[in-house]
Each structure stands twice: as C-alpha cells, then as structure tokens.
Design goal:
Shape: globular
Order of helices and strands: HHHEHEHEEEEEEHHEHHHEEEEEHEEEEE
Structural class: alpha+beta
C-alpha cells in the first residue's frame, strides 16, 4: 500500500502526465463509450492498468483480484483554484466575532453559487471549531442534525461532527447520505489539526462525472435500472464496548435507544426495514442513481461504490469480513453494506471499477492547513480521501457540518 501511494504522489507531482492530458480531452467531450474500432483494438490488450484514464470507460477492466483502490485524481485539477479559494489573511482579526465581514461573505457566496465549492484558507482560526463553523454555514439556512447516517460520528462541538472513519481506510468518493430519502444539500469541513501531506481530502466535479458516465453503457444501465442500497446496523447492547468487526450501531446512527424508534425513523426516510437475530437491523432503499439539481435544472449522478462492501476493503476490524450474500440472510459476520442495481441484480467487478474510475478522472485535492474551512455542494461534488498514517505527535482532525436537508426526488424525465 505504501509503495502504491508513493507512486501516485510522484505521478501527481508531474507537470502534466499522459493521464492528465486524457482528462483534459474528456472534459471537453465527456463521452467514455467505446467505438467498434476501439473495442476491437483493445480486446486483446494484456494489461490495461496503465491506461486507466485514457481508455473509454466501457473498456476498463478491473484487476483480476484484490481490492479496487481509488486513485482520487489524475494529477490535474478540473478547476482553477481562483474559482473556489479565498485567502483570509487580511480578515483574520474579524473572523472570531459573531459577525463576519460582509465583503468576505459576499465573495464567498458568489464563488459558491458559480462553482459549488469554496475553501477559506489562512484564516488564523487554529483549532477554534466554533469560529470555523460560522464560516462553514454562510451558504446554509438550516444546518441539519446527523440522523440515520451510516458512519459512527461523534459531536465535537455543537452541530460539528467528526468524520467517523479510521485513518487506515481509503474513503471512496461519495455523496453524503445518498442512501436515505432525506439527504443534505451541502457540507462544511473544518480543519482543526493538520499534518502536511497526510490526510488530504479530495472533491470530484460531479457535473463532469455525470456527463462522462452517461456516455458509457454502464451509465445508461444505471439510468435505466436505478440502484438499491442495503445497509445493516448492529445492536450496541449485543456488542457492548467491543467494536471489532463493527461498523455502526443503529442506536448511534439514529440517535435512539429502542428498535421501535429506530425503525420509525428509518421508514420516515424511505427505508425498508427487517430485523435479524440479535436485533440486527437490515435496511433497504430503492432510488434513482441520479438526483435532480434545481440550480442547473438537470439530473446529476448521486451514487457511488462507497455504499458497497468494498468501502471496507481497507477498514481495520471490518475488512476481513466476507461480502454480504443478500438482504434476507445478512448477519454481523458479513460486511454490512451492499450495492445493487434497482432490480436487485449485482454489479459486476468491472462495473464497480468503472464507477470508481469515473470519479477519479475529475477529482482534485484539498490540502489542509489548520483553520481551513471547505464548503461544497453535495449535488455538484463528491468527496473522499486516501488512507493515511500519522507519526508521533502528528494530528489530523476534520469537523463536519451538514447543510440544509432535502427530500430526494431522484431523476426527472427530460432533465438529462
């Protein structure tokens, strides 16, 4: 793993690699479908791994074995930093008060409206999460409570939650709370502690991702069939303090103490619920793989492999578990997530690999400094991060603020 990550870092430091040039081309004409000639040309290729960002999406084949590791980006960003970064050096003395400078807020709202992403840097706020939250909510009317989410998040300060994921896990690109009927429009990330070169977050430009995916056979299949999320949660009373092999308890996820309360909340969010032995909570949610985005008046991709068992491939304590066989037979001895098409048919390994790759093609890094605040639209961007390892005395902490809630409508006819 360490050598693989090093090779990615070395490649991304190059001025413009062959892979990055390919992304520049596909950004202009984002179709990853294979022509008949291309299909014939590449059918006999013995090793396509070096062409992961140059081949049409339809032609990508997953490694024969082992986990599918996300690359996160090609080494070239699809956005210019000037489109989303605001240097707050001249505002530092004004950022700890109850009222933020009007000019800063105005500039931030304009960038967010145009791009859907915003990064405040050089804030001088250090580890003051309460002050960072005031920046994080400038685009939000009514920040939501984390309720029914998959990750086991703890509250750091009021309405600022930890990420709920171990450093050893690579977090695939995903849209927050896409697996329930009530999702969030945006997120704010507040960095209270950072270590250079470790724990970098990534965003992926979902408008470009959507255009690219819809140009492939897999994208059209997602459009036609929709998607099904299977998510299972353990009982805290059954496991006690032993979290080995545990992803999340339903008490933590829903913030309740009884199965009746958990089931009522789950059903209110559009989930089907069944209970297994040991009060093992099995949930299922059918929905479009896309979501209509009013601002752009079009459907955007709103799903990813982060809601499949492969999410746990590098998750200590869970990675050793076998994949879930099916909803009705799911047990705590299996990985607690499974992603299928909306007709309950499985995705092939190649399709999962293509799902990962299309987000990687349009990703870019957020390299944290203490005090940084990033805000991004949950429709227009997916987010993720590679695994990382901290040394003695090194720290990384990102607080999460969830934006306004909305009821999912899925994709709308005529909005492609």
């Amino acid at each position: 793993m360490a050598s693989l990550l090093l090779s990615r870092a070395a490649r991304s430091a190059l001025p413009l690699t062959r892979c990055a040039r390919a992304v520049t081309t596909t950004t202009q004409t984002p179709s990853f479908a294979a022509t008949a000639n291309q299909q014939s040309e590449f059918e006999t290729s013995s090793d396509l791994s070096d062409q992961a960002f140059t081949l049409p999406l339809d032609l990508l084949r997953a490694p024969a074995s082992g986990p599918i590791i996300p690359e996160f980006w090609t080494g070239q960003s699809p956005l210019n930093k000037t489109d989303y970064v605001i240097d707050c050096a001249t505002f530092q003395q004004d950022l700890r008060g109850d009222t933020l400078p009007a000019s800063l807020v105005e500039e931030g709202l304009a960038k967010y409206h145009d791009t859907g992403a915003l990064l405040f840097t050089n804030t001088g706020l250090g580890d003051d999460l309460a002050a960072m939250r005031r920046l994080a909510v400038i685009t939000m009317d009514d920040p939501m409570k984390y309720e029914g989410g998959a990750n086991s998040r703890g509250e750091i300060v009021q309405n600022v939650f930890d990420t709920g994921a171990p450093a050893s896990a690579h977090l695939h690109y995903h849209h927050e709370m896409a697996y329930v009927g009530e999702s969030t429009k945006s997120l704010g990330f507040c960095c209270s502690h950072a270590t250079d070169g470790k724990g970098t977050s990534f965003l992926s430009d979902n408008v470009k991702v959507t255009d690219g995916l819809l140009g492939s056979a897999f994208g059209q299949k997602l459009k036609e069939k929709g998607i099904c999320y299977v998510r299972c949660l353990t009982d805290r009373e059954e496991f006690g303090d032993d979290m080995h092999g545990v992803y999340n308890h339903w008490q933590q996820s829903f913030g309740v103490d009884t199965p009746e309360e958990a089931e009522a909340l789950a059903r209110s969010k559009g989930l089907e619920v069944e209970w297994g032995p040991g009060r093992y909570m099995r949930t299922k949610y059918y929905v479009s793989a896309f979501e209509y985005f009013p601002q752009l008046d079009r459907n955007l991709l709103y799903s990813s492999v982060a809601d499949d068992g492969m999410w746990f491939d590098a998750w200590q304590g869970v990675s050793h578990l076998p994949d879930m066989e099916g909803f009705e037979t799911a047990t705590p001895a299996q990985k607690p997530l499974k992603l299928t098409f909306g007709d309950d048919t499985p995705m092939t390994r190649d399709e999962l690999y293509q799902f990962v790759n299309v987000y990687d093609r349009f990703g870019f890094p957020i390299e944290w400094q203490s005090g940084d605040v990033a805000i991004f639209c949950n429709y227009r961007f997916a987010h993720g991060r590679p695994s990382y390892e901290l040394g003695a005395g090194e720290q990384r902490q990102i607080g999460v603020v969830l934006g306004d809630m909305f009821d999912r409508v899925g994709s709308l006819d005529g909005k492609w």
